[in-house]
Amino acid sequence: MSEVPEHVAGSPEQPIRVLIVDDHEVLAASLAMVLDAEDDIRTAGVATTLEQARTLLESTLPDVILLDHRMPDGDGVAAIPELRALRPTIGVVVLTASAADHVLMSAIENGASGFLSKTRSLDEVTAAVRAAAAGESVISPELLARLLPRFGRGKDTPEDELTDREREVLALVAEGLSNAAIAERLVVSVHTVRNHIASLSAKLGAHSKLEALSVAVRQGMLPDL
Q1: What sign does the CA torsion over 39, 44, 48, 51 have?
Q2: Are 21 and 50 part of one and the same domain?
Q3: How many domains, in total, are found in the chain?
Q4: Phi, psi of 89 (to 5 degrees)
Q5: 154 plus 95 within the same structural domain
Q6: Cβ distance 26 to 47 under 8 Å?
Q7: N or C, which end of the chain has less CB nearby within 10 Å?
Q8: At 121, is the pLDDT very low, low, confident or very high (cuts 50, 70, 90)?
Q9: What is the mean pLDDT of residues 187-201?
Q10: In this structure, are 51 and 157 located in the same domain?
Q11: Across-strand partners of 75?
């Protein structure tokens, strides 16, 4: 689902700035080396604790956080809302050695852009950074299809809260389509799709495409799942 961002960040002139939050210093150093080798990505800093992450987040203003699930001073997934409050536009990719569904579901509910196993290739790390910076979901369609039905269902959102087009876009996001693929399906621009996703996310109180989907499922807005 990766897509190269169309905004300014993501070019050699203004690269995507990444904050690495991981207490494994060798891994963090390796990630930083890989990211800095890319023309359109730069490491903004490395934090080995969540406390350091909070400080660096405010001083370095990164576009994306690569966030370890288990940190020495707390749960990285549980810290996502606090980190997002410090920089609401940031993309958060959770680095995890655990593929347990409850960990991945918690990451989605807390506003992560997605997750990446620590066993994945370095090319996938750079692709995940670009996807998160572009507002895309960092998750395979197959895993998305497996996780979404597990979110509990509740009361539906009022019918007039989302427009018909926003509901249509939401259903396509649930299929695992990127913004570009949705734009092609609906014969509109990617910019228009992004506007729809921003609008529906705001109405659902979500901070990422994945979080918007989890809210929609819980509210019974995607009955086919």
Answers
A1: negative
A2: yes
A3: 2
A4: -85, 0
A5: no
A6: no
A7: C
A8: confident
A9: 95
A10: no
A11: 70
Position 4 in a domain: no
The distance of Cα 68 from the centroid of its chain, to the nearest Å, equals 14
Evaluate whether residue 8 is within a structural domain: no
Whether residues 171 and 110 share a domain: the answer is no
Enter the tokens of residue 201.
Answer: 């996310």
State the pTM of this model: 0.87
| Residue tagged 């070019």 (tokens) | 11
By C-alpha distance, which of 102, 123, 101, 97 is closest to 24?
Answer: 97
54-101 pLDDT, tens per residue? 999 999 999 999 999 999 999 999 999 999 999 999 999 999 887 788
% of the chain residues with pLDDT over 90: 70
Q: Are 206 and 219 in contact (CB under 8 A)?
A: no
Q: Are residues 150 and 210 in the same domain?
A: yes
d(CA 24, CA 22): 5
Q: Which amino acid is at 79?
A: A
